[in-house]
Amino acid sequence: MLRWDESIFRNDFVFDLDFLPDVLLHREQQMNQLVANLMPALRGSSPVHTLCLGPPATGKTSTILYVLSQLGEDVEKVYLRCPAIGTIYKILARIFEKVCNHQAPQTGLSHIKLYEKIMERLDRPLIVVLDDINFISTGVVNDLLYLLLKSPEEYGVKIGIVAAATDIKFPLSLSPEVGAVFHYSAIYYSLYGNKEIWDILRWRVEKGFVAGAFSDGAFERVVELASEAGDLRLGMYLLRAAGLNAERRGSRKVDLQDVEAVYSGGAKLFLAKSLAALNSDEREVLKIVYLLDEEIAAGDLYGFFQREVGMSYQRFYEILNKLERLRLIDFVFDKKGRGRTRYVYKRYDADVVLEALREF
Predict the structure, then answer these.
(1) What is the second-level CATH architecture of the domain 28-188?
(2) What count of other Cβ atoms lies within 10 Å of the Cβ of residue 176?
(3) Burial 152-166 (b: 16+ CB within 10 A, else e)
(4) Class assignment of domain 193-274?
(5) Phi, psi for 297 (deg, rounded to 5)
(6) 312/314 Cα distance (integer angstroms)
(7) What is the pLDDT of residues 145-203, one digit of tens each?
(8) What does the domain layout of the chain look like in residue ranges?
């Protein structure tokens, strides 16, 4: 191993998933749109409600946090990761703590009473960020949004909601009551292209490693793996993990062997979040896809499941669409030029996905 003062890292914190860079590459359009939506809050008016929609690892959270960090103290800001909270009381408790500057009661108070206390204390515009909102139950989402959206009318407060969802069909899950009052601006996030991934990861290498410490071959392999997975976070993990692997073997340079040595474990780590969002039927479909040959027509795959478990056509295609949305498969029309057939393709090495599935 290298001595403690011989590290090839310059700033290893730039590879942390919660690190917020001082520049967001290739998200200028989304950032400008979000700034325009929230700008009224700086003038004491109501912000424009915003839905940030796009696949995982496309910069939604980074964009939101970056814009929030630029807002002054005249605006109250509450950032909430919905999967980590889950219930309407816990969500309102976090808002209460931010607005009222002390902890919410753990018991003995209904969520309606908690909501009323928040509204009574709110003396400036409030921006509530609901990240990964589609990972909590539809009932909680509708109840929470309805309360917050009606508060300007009932209490005269200024509230703006910024919600991020990986499911572009999320608005369809809203109740008619919420849909009638939730007038939002949608910001769409597409997957990063290969060149965009290259630019973002190169910036991290230049900030995180000493000059010349990451070989070109190793870097290009990281870009390739991150592009194939459609997950920029995997690329950042591989940069750091490969650097640590190089240090463990006493090298002052990260080579291709270091990337290959850490890839399998890294892919499993990032697959875990996506697999956790699947139910048993969805994991079974994914398992079959990865057990079969390199490609399979969607119709043939449906025929198999219809015979084995009697799965309906609609349910089967809902599952395939979800697997594609989570970047676990590719769902391609007419790849072979034979009519309008849809084909299912793997995005990861089969062994990596099947091993990850065995842990569920």
Answers:
(1) 3-Layer(aba) Sandwich (3.40)
(2) 7
(3) eeeeebbbbbbbbbb
(4) mainly alpha
(5) -65, 140
(6) 6
(7) 999 999 999 999 999 999 999 888 889 889 999 999 999 999 999 989 999 999 999 99
(8) 28-188, 193-274, 277-350
